[in-house]
Specification:
The protein has about 325 residues and is of the alpha/beta class. It folds into 2 domains: about 130 residues, ATPase, nucleotide binding domain (Nucleotidyltransferase, domain 5, 2-Layer Sandwich), CATH 3.30.420; about 180 residues, Hexokinase, domain 1 (3-Layer(aba) Sandwich), CATH 3.40.367.20. About 35% of the residues lie in helices and about 25% in strands. The protein contains 12 helices and 14 strands. A hairpin with a 5-residue loop joins strand 11 and strand 12. The radius of gyration is 20 Å and the shape is globular.
Length: about 325
């Protein structure tokens, strides 16, 4: 018997909703979907009601379960304070409104990690060659409005287990004379004593870097339209993005593969698919051989978070 999962990927800029149909022995498929501007709504409940207004089936009333992926750490499975979103998430009012549907609240990059087990990765673009170890750890790193990380590995029963991370809020290492100048610029411009990876490797970080190198104060979208694979901004940002990926890879050892996602690279693949990125990723005096063995792919499906949220919901229904 077919069942339906309502999946939501709530981002700092936009939120995507999709109703997935799943049946035993068949891959899930999207029946209906929409995208809304997150900032146009004052609460999670209001956002859910707007999705239903877009299409009546995009409602918890139509689903066997609803999985909401959010950009921030989840507290007790019920609450979260979201990065780059003004209002907090609280499932209380939502569950009271839609009492017949079980809700699951997960981190957005936990959803992306589950998405790496779905059709969303059938169209990946290989960034760096390497091997994929069966039953090994996989990891996903992605820059968008902020920077996200998650690792995932199956347990002894074959059940995938995700390991969300807030690694983006660690201090980002900037070294050498040119990079020290950028650090001083970030300290003065962004009002932070210790620039984090979330600041440096993100859409905002791309804009700040371009401003530092050129003096042009542009939005991330304007920078992406203006730069090319040969631009100095591209070279610096590729180095920083690879460094963030390398540090996470050394922490979690994704021998089943590292996936790069997020709007920054998906919309501008030249920022990661270049020799600067590849050289920086494997740069290590002690672990270069290990890093060279890790395969890296760019996820081209921007809806991977929805696919992953649906996969998470399917797994929970089967338990």
């Amino acid at each position: 018997m077919a069942k339906h999962i309502l999946a939501a990927d709530i981002g700092g800029t936009s939120s995507r909703f999709a109703l997935f149909r799943t049946a035993a022995g068949q891959p899930a498929e999207i029946e209906t979907a929409c995208e809304l501007q997150t900032g146009a709504f004052a609460s999670l409940l209001e956002l859910l009601q707007a999705a239903r207004a877009e299409h009546h089936s995009l409602s918890p009333d139509s689903a066997a379960a609803a999985v909401l992926a959010v950009p921030g750490p989840v507290e007790g499975g019920k609450r979260a304070r979201l990065a780059n979103v003004k209002w907090p998430v609280d499932l209380g009012p939502v569950e009271r409104r839609y009492g017949g549907c079980p809700f699951f609240l997960i981190n957005d990059f936990e959803a992306q990690a589950f998405g790496c087990l779905t059709l969303a990765v059938e169209t990946v673009r290989q960034i760096k060659s390497g091997r994929r170890q069966t039953n090994g750890m996989l990891a996903v790193v992605g820059a968008g409005t902020g920077l996200g990380h998650c690792a995932l590995k199956s347990d002894n029963r074959g059940t995938p287990v995700a390991f969300p991370s807030e690694a983006a809020h660690a201090v980002f290492p900037l070294s050498g004379s040119p990079e020290s100048g950028f650090r001083r610029f970030l300290t003065a411009t962004a009002g932070t004593r210790e620039p984090t990876a979330d600041l440096v490797v993100s859409g905002r970080g791309l804009a700040l870097l371009h401003r530092y190198l050129t003096g042009e104060d542009l939005s991330p979208q304007q920078v992406a339209r203006q730069i090319s694979p040969q631009s100095e901004t591209t070279d610096w940002f590729a180095r920083f993005y690879a460094r963030a990926c390398r540090h996470y890879a050394l922490a979690v050892l994704p021998l089943a593969g590292l996936f790069v996602s997020g709007g920054v690279a998906v919309k501008n693949p030249f920022l990661v698919d270049n020799d600067t990125w590849r050289a920086e990723f494997v740069r290590s005096e002690t672990k270069q051989q290990l890093l060279e063995a890790i395969r890296v792919d760019l996820v081209t499906d921007e809806w991977i978070g929805l696919w992953g949220a649906a996969r998470y919901g399917i797994d929970r229904l089967l338990r």
